Amino acid sequence: MRLATWNVNSLRVRLTQLLDWLPSGQPDVVCLQELKLEDAKFPREEIAAAGYRAAWSGQKTYNGVAILARTDTQDVISGIPDFPDDQKRVLAATIGGVRVICLYAPNGQAVGSDKYRYKLDWYVAATRWIAAELAAHHSLAVLGDLNVAPEDRDVHDPKAWEGQVLVSEPERDAYRALLALGLKDAFRLFDQPEKSFSWWDYRMMGFRRNAGLRIDHVLLSPTLAARCTACTIDKAPRKLERPSDHTPVIAELR
DNA sequence: ATGGCTACGATCCGTAGA
To answer: Do the Cβ atoms of A16 and A241 come closer than 8 Å?
Structure first.
């Protein structure tokens, strides 16, 4: 079973790239973030024609998440229960016995801002909810744009980024609290190339300079971590014309 | 030099991303 996550930064703009990528990436499950479209505008027919069922939770302009799957999606939940929130950032579904949680964590904008406060509050609520999901599902995977670079090796220039949003200690603490539920960062279960990133700024030729961050993650419960045989970042879509600023991360389960 | 792109929805600039 292959699980993938990709922040597409507008599904309308990236639909062709997604449809091209599905046959090459061969994922069984794909979590998408930043759809940036209303539910009525979700390209259900194109996705179905590509061989995928889908669940989605979108809104105009901002946010929006979807889970694509080759097989049935069951027990779909959108949003964090008991966390009233207009922002469409969370979607969960059970697929082939695996509980899949698709997350688009808040960016946080700037340390100390209202959005930063919201990000930390969101992490607390998400972590509390995922704890309950883990108690109910041994086979659980959290995939998404978590908007935290967990360690300095996940940052192209740790000195320049020190204390900044996406890297600050309170954000890293929030990320570690999520992992402390018993989740494993699938990417770090394996030897990886140095300077592996999943996002590069559009400006300053960020991708060409490999000036990136690793902020898109696949987190696995112990049961799934034991089944995981590989986790890779697929940089190919980032090389296309008019790319998303993020690129897919894929985990392979036996 | 603190900018530099991109997407969106409003217009011909502001908001947001990360």
So the answer is: no
Give, to the nearest 10 degrees, the angle between helix A169-179 and helix A114-136.
10
Q: Does A145 participate in catalysis according to the annotation?
A: yes
What residues are paired with A213 via a beta bridge? A155, A199
- Cβ-contact A83, A118 below 8 angstroms: no
Distance from CA(A227) to C1'(B8), angstroms, rounded: 41
Q: How far apart are CA A248 and CA A89, in angstroms?
A: 18
Strand B CB shell (< 7 Å): A 7, 9-10, 12-13, 34, 36-37, 60-62, 106-107, 109, 115, 145, 147, 165-166, 199, 201-204, 213, 215, 242, 245-246
Q: How far is CA A19 from CA A52, A147, A221, A246, in A?
A: 10, 25, 29, 16
Tokens of residue A119, six digits? 């990000």
A145, burial (CB in 10 Å: exposed 0-12, middle 13-18, buried 19+):
buried
Per-residue pLDDT reduced to its tens digit, A128-180:
999 999 999 999 999 999 999 999 999 999 999 999 999 999 999 999 999 99
Total-model pTM: 0.97
Question: Whole-angstrom Cα distance, residue A132 to residue A101?
Answer: 12
